[in-house]
Amino acid sequence: MSTIKDVANLADVSICTVSRVLADKGYIKPETKEKVLEAARKLQYRPNHTAQNLKAGNTKKFGLVLPDITNMYYPIIAKSIEEYAGKKGYMILLCNSNMSLQKEKQLFELLKRRAVDGVIALPVSQDISHIQELACQGIPYVLVNRDFANDSHCIPSDNFYGGYTMMKYLIEHGHKNICAIFQSFENSIYKERWEGAELALKEFGLNDTLFLYDVNDMLAAHKKVLSLLGANEQPTAFFASNDMLAAGVYSAAYERKLIIPKDISVVGYDNIAYSFLMVPPLTTFEQPAGEMARRAIDLLIKQLNGDAINKKAKKLRGRLVERKSVAKVPLKI
Questions:
Q1: Which parts of the chain span the membrane according to its record (predicted)?
Q2: At residue 266, does pLDDT exceed 60?
C-alpha cells in the first residue's frame, strides 16, 4: 500500500506539501497541486484518516450508512446503535443511501474525507467491494444484519430462520393458499427470508405458492395485492417480507372491504413501531436490533484497538411476535 512518502517522491515535493495539498490547506501553486494529485492518483493513495485521528486523539465519530430511512425498521436499529455508541463515548454520523448502490459508494467516499473512526453499514446489494476497501485504508467497518461468506466483519441476523418461522406459522394455522410478497433479492436479507419460507413450504408439500417479487414499498404492495383480492381463488394468507409491505396488504384489504383475520390472514417482519397499532395488531417477527447494535459497536472498537477479526460472528435469532392478524382456516365439511 502506497504511503505519503511515496507520493512526495513521485511528485518531487516534500511530505509537508503533499499533506497540505490533500488537506486543501494553505496556498499551493496550481502546477504543484496538480503534480501531487496526479501522483496520488497513480499510486491510488488515500490518507489513513484513522492513523491521523489517533495522533490527534480520535474524532470519536462513527459513520452509519442506512439503505432507506423511510422503512421504519432502520430508525429502530439506528436508535439502538446511537444509544450504545453514546455509552462508549462516540457520536453517530447518519447517512441514507436511498436504496442506491451509486449513492452508497458516494457516501463512503464522503465518510473517508470526513475522517470518521469507523463505519457501520447496512448495504443495499451484494457488491461490497467499496466497503471492504476501508480496511485497506486503516478504517474499521462492520456490516449489520448482513452475512457475506468472505467477510468476517458481519453481525448477521438469522433471516433464514425468521422466514421459515413465519411461513410455518401460517401453514400450522391451516393456510395452503399463501401469497408471499417480497422486496428485491438485491438485498440479501430478503433472499434469505424467502429461502427459509420456501423450506417450510416444501416440508409441508406446498409447491404452488403465489410469489410476488421486487415489491419495494407500501404503495407497490397495495397495488399488487389489490389486484389479487376479490378473485375466485384469492389467497387466504399473506407473508410480507417486512412490516411496511404488510401495511400495504392491510390497506388493500380495507379497500376491498375485507376483514383481517376473518377474511385473510397477514404476517409481517421486523416488528416496527406501529405494527402493534395496526388494526388488528400485526403478527410479525422481531429482530434483535439492540444486540446487533451492541455487537457492531464493540466490533468497531475492537478493530480500533488493533485486534484481528478472523472469526465470523454467530447469527442472531429473533422471535415471533404473535398478535391478532392470523386466524385458522375453517375446516370444509
A1: none
A2: yes
Query: What residues contact 179, with CB distance under 8 A and at least 6 apart?
Result: 209, 210, 211, 212, 225, 228, 235, 237, 238, 239
Write the DSSP symbol of residue 119.
E
Q: Between 56 and 134, where is the model more confident?
A: 134
Is 189 within 8 Å of 143 (Cβ atoms)? no
The alpha carbon dihedral of 49, 50, 51, 56 has a sign of positive
Q: Are 107 and 95 in contact (CB under 8 A)?
A: yes
Rg of the chain over Cα atoms, rounded to whole angstroms, equals 24
Domains and CATH numbers, the chain: 4-47 (1.10.260.40), 59-157+288-317 (3.40.50.2300), 159-286 (3.40.50.2300)
HEC string of 24-71 equals CCCCCCHHHHHHHHHHHHHHCCCCCHHHHHHHHCCCCEEEEEECCCCC
Q: What's the average model confidence in pLDDT over 257-273?
A: 96
For residue 8, what are the CA distances in angstroms to 23, 32, 314?
14, 11, 45
- CA–CA gap between residue 120 and residue 97 (Å, rounded): 13
pLDDT for position 312? 79
Name the pairing type of β-strands 118-121 and 61-66.
parallel
Q: How far is CA 116 from CA 52, 97, 162, 242, in A?
A: 11, 17, 34, 31
Assigned C-alpha cell, 152: 468476517
Please report, for residues 23, 31, 79, 263, 294, the alpha-carbon distance to residue 82 in angstroms, rounded to integers and kept in the order given.
29, 44, 5, 41, 10
Query: Which among 33, 1, 31 has a CA at the least distance from the CA of 18?
Result: 33
In the three-class reduction of DSSP (H, G, I as helix; E, B as strand; rest coil), residue 260 is classed as: coil
Alpha-carbon distance of 251 to 61, in angstroms, equals 41
CA gap 333, 331 in Å, rounded: 6
The string over 30-52, giving b where at least 16 C-beta atoms fall within 10 Å of a residue's C-beta and e elsewhere, is: eebbebbeebbeebebbbbbbee
Question: pTM for this one?
Answer: 0.79
Pair 267, 326: CB distance under 8 Å: yes
**Residue at grid coordinates 488537506:** 23
